[in-house]
Amino acid sequence: MLDYLFSKGMIGSCEIKNRLVVTAMVTNYCDNKGYATERYIRYHEEKAKGGWGLIITEDYAIDAHCMGYECIAGLYNDDQIASHAKLTERIHKYGTKIFAQIYHAGKQQSAKVNGGVQPMAPSAIPCPWCRDLPREMTKADIQTVIHNFGECARRVKEAGFDGIELHAGHGYLLAQFLSPYINKRIDEYGGCLDNRARIVKEVLDAMRAQVGDDFPIMIRFSADEDMPGARDISESRVLAKMFEEWGFDALHVSSGVYGDYNKQIVSPMYVKHAWTVDYAEEIKKIVKIPVITVNRINDPRMADGLIAMGKTDFVGMGRGSLADPELPNKAKAGKLDDIRYCIGCLQGCTGALYEGGPVTCLVNPSVGLEYKCDYSKVDHPKKIAVIGAGPAGLETAIHAARRGHMVTLYEKKDKIGGQFVSAAYPPCKGEFTTFLSWANKQLDKYGVRVLLNTSATVEMIQNGEYDDVVICTGGLPLVPPIKGIDLPHVKYAEDVLTGKVEIGDSCIVAGGGEVGCETAAHLGMIQKQATIVEMKPALMEELDGVSKENLMTVMNRFHVKSFVNTKVLEIKEHSVLVETSNQQIELPCDSVVLAMGYKPNTTLADELESAGIKIHKIAGAVKTSNALIANREGFELGMTL
Ligand code: SF4
């Protein structure tokens, strides 16, 4: 089983023990001078321990002002080498190889994070996301950049890395030169493809002069930039041949640039698995050097099949490795149901980075905390009650039990998961169930006593003589005082999604946040007519641009209608009276679905406190939050009880 995935592979002179590659993902775990911190090293070490064949690091800055994030790695001065040498030494202990990805962000950066310097680019066109107007590079700038890539390559080798990945994809500086979408130069670095590609050849030559012909250097590039007027696969085929002829040792075939809200460089759950593999396959047909594919591949069997079919030589999983750094070892041991699969939510990874924070992961809250996690058994196991089996309660229970405590988990429903159960029902979100099936397995593995269909009471908790009581009772739906809201055809979104209630053919969804929009999309999918009514000026205000764009596409596909800046005034038997900015309208409907947010459920917490029982209260029981925050709070508490 998985014979292709677990066969050795070569990139240049570097032998790699299997075909599983951790692709580069920005962490923001280094310090703001580009030095590797213990947090950064431990994060990578966990993946090496987990059995990945090759780790490609985040993009190392080649100079002090070229980075798109404040705390990414850098090898732009010799003083930085020692801290990164510690990283390579630790990774090599596990037989894993490690390449440094090196880059210049070009226009895809901002003076806010790069030390206050105006970004530069082949032409003065701003990045739609980063916004700063870049200055057009002079020829002297180009020569400096080429020199800096060469010097950076030398430092990579001196720090003990096994190779280099040159980042010429995703719209960063070298990709900007390659693309007619951004490169409007009319000198020898612009115009025809040979001119646009010239800088890449000169960078490669500068690197080879420093590290020699034997040191593996591969290149990552976007085979299709997926923007109007940008580079497409036809030109990328030509480029791939050029890259091979010039002496790159492998091609990492990716897609996209900043500004593409649709599929995006890091694709959300709305995008098909392995959707860029056809590009890799096309390139593989015309080159002899190895090809790496990537994007929404989260299952080892899927990866194995792609290699078996000859579509790629290696398979990259960036987010798959965040979600479960032990994926290779578990896959090799046949423990596929023990893998914590990436669900494509983007909340903890790109979502956190967009906000300028460090990377994390919704399903794996230990990401970024590896350096302070101690999973050893406690000396004095305690009796712990966890009340509520939503994400926060699950993480608390699993990790407290993992450390040796005796944990009882109370859940009033007939299954674990809380609101995360209904979160799996809307279109494209089925993989959310993988987190709950994983959690079920862990509860079993660590011996948590799970009491389903059990509403915990003060008496039960008193009789249980627990040392610690954790309240994770989550939230209750908000029900505003609207006339008619208690009519029988008014239902909660969660009940509608999970099929607990019947619903008419024509539905008004009150609330246009994420839950309301997803519920409307679900209704559309089952051929109901859904109309959203939202008070705010826009739908899904809390969502990132990529998720919003994709969910909107699904809603359009299922003909969901919406009103924004519109207030529900009254619910009637066959209609809803709403007020827009300039008029009142009566919208006919058979059913009304409430998706108006949540408030903390504090009933049991209040009762326990009144009875003098000391409790820990977390996540939605304290403040309305989301699964990312709930999981993190549960994990942190479970690790410290
Ligand atoms: Fe995957 Fe979501 Fe974790 Fe990102 S936050 S790695 S998309 S599960």
Can you put this structure into words, describing what you see?
- The protein is α/β, with parallel strands linked by helices and about 650 residues long.
- It has 3 domains: about 10-350, TIM Barrel, CATH 3.20.20.70; about 375-475 and about 600-640, 3-Layer(aba) Sandwich (Rossmann fold); about 490-595, 3-Layer(bba) Sandwich (FAD/NAD(P)-binding domain).
- α17 (about 515-525) links the parallel β19 and β20.
- About 55% of the residues are buried.
- The model has no long low-confidence stretch (mean pLDDT about 95).
- Bound molecules: iron/sulfur cluster.
- Iron/sulfur cluster (SF4) binds near residues 342, 345 and 346.
What attributes characterize this protein structure?
Rossmann fold, 27 strands, TIM Barrel, alpha/beta, FAD/NAD(P)-binding domain, binds iron/sulfur cluster, five-stranded parallel sheet, about 30% helix, about 650 residues, 3 domains, eight-stranded parallel β-barrel
Ranges where pLDDT stays below 50 over 5 or more residues in a row are: none
CATH superfamily of the largest domain: Aldolase class I
Q: Helix/strand/pairing class, anyone?
A: alpha/beta
Helix content: 25-40%
Radius of gyration equals 26 Å
Q: Could you name the CATH topology of the largest domain?
A: TIM Barrel
* Neighbour order of strands in the largest sheet: 3-4-5-8-9-10-11-12
Q: DSSP strand (E) fraction?
A: 15-25%
Compute the separation of the termini in Å: 40 Å
**Cofactors, ions and other ligands in the entry:** iron/sulfur cluster
The number of domains: 3
Instruction: Compute the number of helices.
Output: 20
CATH class of the largest domain: Alpha Beta
Q: How many beta-strand runs?
A: 27
Examine the secondary-structure arrangement and name the CATH architecture of the largest domain.
Alpha-Beta Barrel
